[in-house]
Design brief:
The chain is an alpha+beta fold. It has 6 helices and 16 strands.
Length: 316
């Protein structure tokens, strides 16, 4: 269609071009979030994950830390537990398009097996008078589920540049290279996701009359890799490893046991006391499992989440 005028008739100023608006839209992450919302809505009947809300605000703590949950999904297994997935949509930094995850060793060194840690709420009839609508009130806590799913479960992460700068051909001294790694985008995504799920769980416990689990998911455009290695191959004098000693595996999704901020750790089970050792406090209050999912495999992951967790883990 032919454009009849390049002026804004109301102001007399030059009208913005579509290219200008597209660049402005593409600079932010809203379009990616819109795409994910639309994807889950279009498939919610078949996926059994119903979109509940997007851009949902939550706050927590005496300092009222606030965030908005990009998207909340609900999936209910009849007679069992309702699962809520809180999605944080995160485009990769254009400079660091590859996300690397590593270290399989359990964050709880004395634990018998690797496990996931989820925010949860279940009936507790031990509190006198704690009833709502004829049922015992839901009590929030952190639950631990052994990882028997085969989903890679790791502890650490970084973002990597895709290529190193070439060496000068004239033999001159190369400039000091820019950093080849970062953690800022992943760390920001995990902090927002943990704040969202911790802030949401108490509100759900007040509104819901069925037990539930709340699971944070970071959906990303980044390539997702696991870096596996033997700790003995890390040089003790330099703290580094040779590339030949690394084993890289691409994954459509994986999980990270993330230690959330102590300030926003609002769910406690057991209630830590002055005598609790760090491992008890970490497992009972501070760890949350973050799922990192490539955007083009999100619906496959949601099917796995329902099959491996919602359908196999009824409330205690």
């Amino acid at each position: 269609m032919k454009q009849t005028s390049s002026m804004d008739l109301a102001s007399g100023e030059p009208a913005p071009t579509p290219e200008t608006i597209a660049r402005a839209l593409n600079e932010q992450g809203f379009l990616f979030q819109n795409r994910i919302v639309g994807l889950t809505w279009d498939a919610h009947g078949a996926s059994k994950w119903r979109p509940e809300a997007f851009e949902y605000p939550v706050s927590i703590g005496v300092l009222f830390d606030e965030t908005r949950i990009d998207l909340i999904l609900r999936s209910t297994v009849p007679g069992q537990t309702t699962w809520f997935a809180t999605l944080e949509c995160k485009r990769a930094d254009p400079r660091f398009k590859t996300w690397i995850f590593f270290e399989k060793r359990n964050r709880l060194l004395g634990a018998k097996a690797p496990a996931f840690f989820f925010s949860a709420a279940e009936y507790d009839a031990t509190e006198p008078g704690a009833y709502q609508d004829g049922f015992p009130a839901l009590q929030t806590r952190v639950i631990e589920i052994e990882n028997v799913t085969g989903i890679p479960l790791l502890s650490f992460y970084l973002e990597a540049k895709e290529a190193c700068p070439p060496k000068p051909k004239d033999g001159s001294q190369a400039k000091t290279p820019d950093k080849l790694s970062s953690t800022s985008t992943i760390e920001d995504a995990f902090r927002q996701a943990s704040l969202g799920v911790v802030g949401l769980a108490p509100a759900l416990a007040r509104a819901e009359d069925h037990p539930f689990r709340a699971v944070p998911i970071v959906v990303t455009t980044a390539a997702v890799f696991e870096a596996d290695y033997d700790a003995a191959d890390i040089s003790i004098d330099r703290g580094m490893i040779d590339a030949a000693k690394l084993r890289l595996t691409a994954h459509p999704w994986l999980a990270v046991n993330y230690a959330i901020s102590d300030k926003i750790a609002g769910l406690r089970d057991p209630e830590p006391s002055a005598g609790d050792v760090p491992a008890i406090d970490l497992g009972g209050r501070l760890l949350r499992t973050m799922f990192v999912v490539r955007a083009n495999r999100l619906m496959d992951f949601l099917a796995t989440l329902r099959r491996e967790f919602a359908e196999k883990n009824p409330p205690a």
